[in-house]
Amino acid sequence: MVNYRYLGNSGLKISEITYGNWLTHGSQVENDVATQCVRAALDAGISTFDTADVYANTKAEQVLGDALAGERRESLEIFTKVYWPTGPGGPNDTGLSRKHVMESIDGSLRRLGTDYVDLYQAHRYDTETPLTETMQAFADIVRQGKALYIGVSEWTADQIRAGAALAKDLGFQLISSQPQYSMLWRVIEDEVVPASKEAGLSQIVWSPMAQGVLSGKYLPGEAPPAGSRATDTKGGAESIGRFMDDDVLTRVQGLRPVADELGLSMAQLAVAWVLQNDNVAAALVGASRPEQVAENVKASGVTIPEELMARIDDVLGDVVERDPAMTARNAPSTRVA
Ligand code: NDP
């Protein structure tokens, strides 16, 4: 079964393997397969589920809500997010203004079929709304009981520090940061992680398997396997594109002996690797099939010895991205319309 970790400096425990439904529910996979994946997650002891209003333009929340209907609410931690535009694209259908935040939470709760989410996350930083306005809206949502805790996603260290300080003044706290993090993408290590530790946030990290690349199933010079994300024309192929490089894929194949030595699959090694970081509360893992969920949860509780952690670094060499400036560089510099 899956181990639990505290989320930030809070009393909330979450399953260290968390199931996320970006690109899959309401898009790449049919609803019955989505339900089977959620079932497999619950059966394996995963209690924490992550989605966003923008995934499949609100359909992912609906599919997840339907799949979790009938489960004991107190036994689940349900996370969603606000920022990216949904709806008809009006000037206020985006960002972190009070108007968009207060309206979006109601839509998310309706689709998820719940009275509250456990964690409501700012999906990106809104450069056009005063941070005080956003934080005041979050404070009100917490007081209304519509969200129990607040987090952020892909915020820089400075943004995290400023948000955490304001939240404290308003009588609540930011408890989580949701950045991309994997053996191949380590840009949070130098700035976001130290700032988060200081401010009492932990990381729930997305694409720990680099969207499937670290499972080793994509071979250099060969066509991607049928049905994989790299063949998904509804957005998957584009998203995974940055890792579909022969140099990266060749280096990744070099990790196979390390996984073998630990008796793990490469997918399990990738998930276990992010969990070695003590500021990581959970690996947010996706799946297009229930068997993947069953395989990936076995990464919980694995310790990778120092010597093998060093070997992983040697094998991957310079294909690892470490530049902390990538957090800001990949975030929208103006509010996305
Ligand atoms: P992963 O790196 O875990 O990739 C998951 C994908 O890899 C699966 O959908 C599947 O794709 C493939 N896969 C999973 N397990 C295996 C396995 N055992 N063997 C082979 N292939 C496997 O994470 P995601 O990129 O899916 O992201 C996870 C979650 O993170 C999202 O659902 C979302 O909740 C969150 N997220 C947050 C973002 C943010 O901005 N805050 C951005 C992106 C994600 P397939 O079978 O189709 O190849």
From TrEMBL:
Signal peptide: none annotated. It comes from the Bacteria. Keywords: NADP, Oxidoreductase. SUPFAM superfamilies: NAD(P)-linked oxidoreductase. Gene3D superfamilies: NADP-dependent oxidoreductase domain. InterPro entries: K_chnl_volt-dep_bsu_KCNAB-rel, NAD(P)_OxRdtase_dom_sf, NADP_OxRdtase_dom. It holds the Pfam family Aldo_ket_red. Residues 16-315 form the NADP-dependent oxidoreductase domain. PANTHER family: HYPERKINETIC, ISOFORM M. Belongs to the shaker potassium channel beta subunit family. This is Aldo/keto reductase. It comes from Isoptericola cucumis.
